[in-house]
Amino acid sequence: MSAPVLSLAPIVARIEAAALYRSVGGAADMRRAAQSGAMGSPLAFVMPGAEATRPSGMVGGTQHSSVTARFIVVTLAEDIRHDAGLRAVSQLEEVRAGLLSALAGWGPDYADGPVSHLSGQLVTGPLPGGLLGWQDEFSLRFRRRLTTGG
């Protein structure tokens, strides 16, 4: 299959179906939750990352490309101001393990294979409500077909 751009909707649906998080959203949801103070945990926010395209030619006015797209899942664990901190780390570890399992070997219908986990790191910036955060980066490949002209 092909897609013109990375679609996060099936990725969000897959993560929601795993029932790991109280809420799953995107970058705008993360900003709104932080501004309103409506948090709770655990939460996940799925956002697009970098994209690399390798053109494979033109056929009949259609440009064909192979795309490697990255996406990020930010996981926020419970408020560490209100417990010993170790419980928040434990929750973060459990939820991340579930996230990695939910995406392992799976790819959206438009992908050329399964999602790959690339890296993970602690979110070091200030988080609302003293939450503990982890950012996982994933990639997937898909084909892009774009018709040229108007």
- As for the number of domains, it is 1
The DSSP helix count reads 3
What is the CATH architecture term? 2-Layer Sandwich
Give me the CATH superfamily.
Phage tail protein-like
Would you tell me the structural class of the helices and strands?
alpha+beta
Which ranges are low-confidence, i.e. pLDDT below 50, for 5 or more consecutive residues? none
Defining traits:
single chain, 150 residues, alpha+beta, STM4215-like, 5-stranded mixed beta sheet, 25% helix, elongated
What features would you describe in this structure?
The chain is an alpha+beta fold. It has one domain: STM4215-like. 25% of the residues lie in helices and 41% in strands. The chain is built from three helices and five strands. It has a five-stranded mixed sheet with strand order 1-2-3-5-4. Strand 4 (116-122) and strand 5 (131-147) form a beta hairpin. It starts with 8 loop residues before the first helix and ends with a strand. The mean pLDDT is 83.
Give the SSE layout.
Elements: H1 9-17, E1 23-25, H2 27-36, E2 43-59, E3 62-79, H3 86-103, E4 116-122, E5 131-147
Parallel strand pairs: 1-2
Antiparallel strand pairs: 2-3, 3-5, 4-5
Tell me briefly what this model is.
With 150 residues, the protein is α+β, with helices and mostly antiparallel strands.
